[in-house]
Each structure stands twice: as C-alpha cells, then as structure tokens.
Amino acid sequence: MAMTAIPPAVCTLVLAWRVFEDTPIAVAANRDERLDRPSRPPGVSGTDPRVLAPRDVEAGGTWMGVNEHRVFAGLTNRWLDTDREPERSRGLLVDAVLQADSATAGFEMLRSAVAAHTYDGFNLLVADRDRAILIEYDGTLRHREFDPGVHVVVNTGADGTYELPAVRESIARTQGRNADRVRTTLEPEPDESAAEWLTRGKTVLGDHDYGVCIHGDGYGTVSTSLVAIGADGTVDYRYADGPPCRTEARRVDNQV
C-alpha cells in the first residue's frame, strides 16, 4: 500500500478490559502515519451523542474516540495481499460506531456501513463496560468477543492470532512478535491501578525495544492516546501529540 493511501488509524492498540474494578476500559494506543498528514487533537463534536475524538483533516473521520454513552471505538489498518478499491475512508467507520449507545449497537452500525459501502481492510475495536468486540475485515466481516483481560490489536490481528500477507510477511511476523511482547509486559502487576497501568503503557509504547514506536523517512508514530473510562462514567483522555518516546501525554480539557 502506498503511503499516500493510508487512512487515519491506530497501529498498536492495547486494551485492558474489565481488568480494573474502578476502570472497566483502559486503552493505550499509538498512531502511525505520514508525518505530513494533517490532524487535529482530541475535541468534542456532535450533540446527540457528544463524541470526544481526534480528527483526520485529510480524509475525514477519526482513528479512535469515546462518546457520552461511554462507548469506545478504535481502528487499525489491516494489511492485505492486495489493496481493495474503497469508496470511503475507514476513519468514517469510527464516526459511525460512535453514534451508538452500546458496543452491541455500534457493531450493528458497522455491519450496516460495510454492507452499504466498500472499505479497505481494517480491525475495529468497539467496547463498553458490558462487551468488547474486535471486528476484522478483509473483504469478509468477522468478529471476536474479548474476555476480560489485556488485549493487543495491530495491523495483522490480535492476541497471538495474526494473518501474514505474502507481500510483507517478514515485517508482519515481526509485528506479531512485538505485539505479543507488549501484551505480556502489560499484564497488570499486583495492586496496580488503572492510572499506573496507563503510565506504564505509554512507557512501553515509547520503548524502541518493543518495536512499536516507529521513526521512518516521512512516516512514523505521530501520537499516543491514553483513555480511561471509569465505572462511575468519568472519562480521562490524555494525548501525546508526537512520538511517545519524547512527547508528554497531556490531559484533554474538553471531556465528553
């Protein structure tokens, strides 16, 4: 896939779902992208529902966000052997899912959107306090239900189950190994809080030994998001507008 065709997406997404009693959803995620692709940091949009999400200026949509119903959605590209011919940006799928009042409703909205339009391959995670669903699309829509625990989603799949496209088999295999190492490292420590886990998550996502903080020629890791959705409905979104290895994650003032 040419770099100019890459849509907005998270490329490493770590979810701790129903791991922490007071924080059923905790997410640490890196976005990898062209360095010159314009975007806006997280802000609130919409009124019914209100949505807190960053914005892709070039193609529209977003790569992740949370709405006033405490539904979270996050997108990664999915590497395929051949590019599809999409009618719409995959970032618009996240917008569609974030109109839902539950993860189940978001899944149904996604199914409708995919039936109506053509998209390139993707992995899309939608979660609330009751359900966490990973939807995988390579021309055929499939989904997995996540159990409580730590999960890592990357371009090739999640949690040790990866598909290796022949056109980039070597890098895909390496990505899977890196994702497995991140997942093992980010298993919660005894008495660790969600806030402490997220801090550790950012450190891991910025540690070059794990291979998920990328610096390339015109392409690389451009931001990190840390999201905590509390059992009491509070949302804490922290955003690093730059590579996590050298950029502080600051709390977003406009909370949903």
Give an overview of the whole structure.
- With 256 residues, the chain is an alpha+beta fold.
- The chain has a single domain (3-251), classed as Penicillin V Acylase, Chain A, CATH 3.60.60.10.
- It is built from 4 helices and 15 strands.
- It has helices at residues 91-97, 103-116, 169-185, 194-205; strands at residues 12-20, 23-34, 39-45, 51-56, 64-67, 72-77, 122-127, 132-137, 141-145, 149-154, 157-158, 161-162, 219-229, 235-240, 250-251.
- The strands form 2 sheets. Strands 12-11-10-1-2-13-14-15 form an 8-stranded antiparallel β-sheet.
- Helix 1 (91-97) crosses helix 2.
- The N and C termini lie far apart (35 Å).
User: What is the number of beta strands?
Assistant: 15
- Number of domain units: 1
Biggest β-sheet: count, sense, barrel? Answer: 8 strands, antiparallel
Count of runs of 4 or more consecutive helical residues: 4
The class by helix and strand makeup works out as alpha+beta
Percentage of residues assigned to helices: 10-25%
- Please indicate the percent range of residues in DSSP E strands (runs of 2 or more): 35-45%
Q: Report the CATH C-level class.
A: Alpha Beta
CATH topology annotation = Penicillin V Acylase, Chain A
The CATH architecture category equals 4-Layer Sandwich
- Summarize model confidence as the mean pLDDT: 93
What is the radius of gyration?
16 Å
- Sequence of strands across the biggest β-sheet: 12-11-10-1-2-13-14-15
Order of helices and strands: EEEEEEHHEEEEEEHHEEE
N/C terminus separation: 35 Å
Q: Segments where pLDDT lies below 50 for 5+ residues?
A: 1-8
The H-level CATH homologous superfamily, spelled out, is Penicillin V Acylase, Chain A
Q: Identify the overall geometry.
A: globular
